[in-house]
Structure formats: structure tokens, C-alpha cells
């Protein structure tokens, strides 16, 4: 029932809040290891979250893990999607991270913190799944509830960008969309964040 009501009970990425104000937070995230898949949503009937099942199969969320050990890997949150183009289109272990433009979307699951390096993570059987290390990084972050539609996300990103620039922070890349709850969570109880990388 906790999942329906928005309770987050899985591991989330380790971070330090460097600054908090009414408009946003500045966070520094610790290094992590991610599993990611890149795909073309147009080949999946426009499904921007089409990589989810590939990654869920890798960690064994729905059955036998599709990795060389085989080792079940705990789900984390959020699922993160990041835009890989200047057009600011959205793309979608928890967390799951996705990035993309109109043609390619990259989705990532952040693996549990017990995996300190790429070598420690179980090797995927599906060649579409790539394991990579993410270094320490800093983001401006704004949290919101409800359904993270393209329109809502775009509005949040633009407002966050303006607030960060107003306060002298330099944005150095495309946004991430972090979604902490499964799709069956009641919309008003969902936790979402937009994140912009800053210097």
C-alpha cells in the first residue's frame, strides 16, 4: 500500500544539500554506478520509458536477473531521465535515469551504493545495457508532485534555470527528470524532481 500512497522505501542516491531556498536546492551527489540503456522511443510507439523493462530485467525486478552472476539487484529511486540535446525534450535503481531527444533516449537506474565500481556490478547479458561510473556532481533541484508530463517538466526546468541564473549559478548541461514512484502511485502523492547540472 505504501507504493500507492507515495511512500519511498528504497535506497536513494547519497547527496549533501549545499544550499536551500524557497525556489530550489543545490545538491552535491556522491559518485555512483549506473546501468543505462539508449533507445529510440519512436520505435517503441513513442514510449519515452521504453527502456524501463530492459533495465528491470537486468536487475531481476520481475524475475530471473539478466546478468552474468545472476544476482538480483535491489531497486532504488528515483528513476531519472536526462535530455541529451539542447532542444530540452524529455527522455525518461532506483533511481532510473533517462536522457534523450526526439531520436534517442537514455534511461538509467542508479545501482545500490554497495557497488563501488563498474567492475563490482554484475555484467549485463543484454548488450543494450551499459554499466558506467558517474563521478561527483552538483545540481540545482526543484521537487514537485503530480504527473510529470512534458509540459509540466518543461515549465519546471525553465523556472529552475531562471532562478539558478538569477542567483549566479552557471548551468552546464541538460536537465534530468527524477521520478521516485511507480506509475500506480496516486498522482498527488508522487514525488518528482527536475535537476540541472551546475558548476
From TrEMBL:
InterPro entries assigned: Reg_factor_effector_dom_sf, SOUL_heme-bd
Pfam families linked to this entry: SOUL
Protein origin, superkingdom: Eukaryota
Recorded family membership: Belongs to the HEBP family.
Name of protein: Heme-binding-like protein At3g10130, chloroplastic
Organism: Elaeis guineensis var. tenera (Oil palm)
Amino acid at each position: 500500500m505504501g507504493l500507492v500512497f507515495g511512500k519511498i522505501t528504497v535506497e536513494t542516491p547519497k547527496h549533501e544539500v549545499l544550499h536551500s531556498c524557497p525556489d530550489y536546492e543545490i545538491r552535491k551527489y556522491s559518485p555512483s554506478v549506473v546501468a543505462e540503456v539508449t533507445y529510440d522511443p519512436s520505435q517503441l510507439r513513442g514510449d519515452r520509458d521504453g527502456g524501463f523493462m530492459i533495465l528491470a530485467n537486468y536487475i531481476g525486478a520481475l524475475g530471473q536477473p539478466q546478468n552474468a552472476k545472476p544476482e538480483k539487484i535491489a531497486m532504488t529511486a528515483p528513476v531519472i531521465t536526462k535530455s541529451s540535446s539542447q532542444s530540452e525534450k524529455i527522455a525518461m535503481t532506483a533511481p532510473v535515469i533517462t536522457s534523450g531527444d526526439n531520436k534517442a533516449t537514455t534511461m538509467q537506474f542508479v545501482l545500490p551504493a554497495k557497488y563501488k565500481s563498474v567492475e563490482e556490478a554484475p555484467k549485463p547479458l543484454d548488450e543494450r545495457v551499459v554499466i558506467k561510473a558517474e563521478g561527483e556532481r552538483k545540481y540545482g533541484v526543484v521537487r514537485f508532485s503530480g504527473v510529470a508530463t512534458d509540459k509540466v517538466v518543461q515549465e519546471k526546468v525553465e523556472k529552475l534555470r531562471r532562478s539558478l541564473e538569477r542567483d549566479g549559478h552557471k548551468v552546464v548541461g541538460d536537465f534530468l527528470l527524477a521520478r521516485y514512484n511507480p506509475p500506480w502511485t496516486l498522482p498527488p502523492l508522487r514525488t518528482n524532481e527536475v535537476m540541472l547540472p551546475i558548476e
